[in-house]
Amino acid sequence: MVMALTAVMIGGVLVTFALIVIRLSDRTPTLPDQVELPDGARAVAVTIGSNWFAVVTEDERILIFDKTTGKLRQTVTTD
Questions:
Q1: What are the DSSP calls for 24-65, one per residue?
Q2: Taking the alpha carbons of 17, 22, 27, 30 in that order, is the dihedral positive or negative?
Q3: Considering only CA atoms, which of 27, 26, 28, 30 is closest in space to residue 70?
Q4: Which end of the chain is less crowded, N or C, counting CB atoms within 10 A of the terminal residue's CB?
Q5: CB 65 within 8 A of CB 55
Q6: Could you tell me which residues are beta bridge partners of residue 48?
Q7: pLDDT along the chain (79 residues), means of 10
Q8: How far is CA 75 from each of CA 4, 58, 65, rounded to the nearest angstrom?
Q9: What is residue 74's predicted lDDT score, i.e. its pLDDT?
């Protein structure tokens, strides 16, 4: 009886571990090969969303790009 319970618990741990690995393996963020920044802009940070990514520049602008096309959607400035 104890052996069966131990085998079931080990199997459950293995299945749980496998599901976690499978679930997290699809979460690799992707960016375009190249991103064209406006003249004079130099990137200091990047944040990735579900269908967008944002680039923070040295001059404190946030440039929001479309993830599929790579085109600039919006520019946010700090004033």
A1: HHT------S---PPTT--EEEEEE-SSEEEEEETTSEEEEE
A2: positive
A3: 30
A4: C
A5: yes
A6: 53
A7: 89 91 72 82 89 92 90 87
A8: 61, 14, 9
A9: 93
pLDDT at 15: 93
State the pLDDT at residue 28.
66
Tell me the one-letter amino acid at 23.
R
d(CA 45, CA 50): 17
The identity of residue 57, as a single letter, is T
Structure tokens at 43: 């990137």
Scanning the structure block, which residue is given the tokens 């990137």? 43
Burial class (CB in 10 A: 0-12, 13-18, 19+), 53: buried
Q: Which amino acid appears at position 1 of this protein?
A: M
Q: Mind listing the domains of the chain with CATH numbers? A: 2-30+39-77 (2.40.10)
- Token pair of 18, please? 């496998």
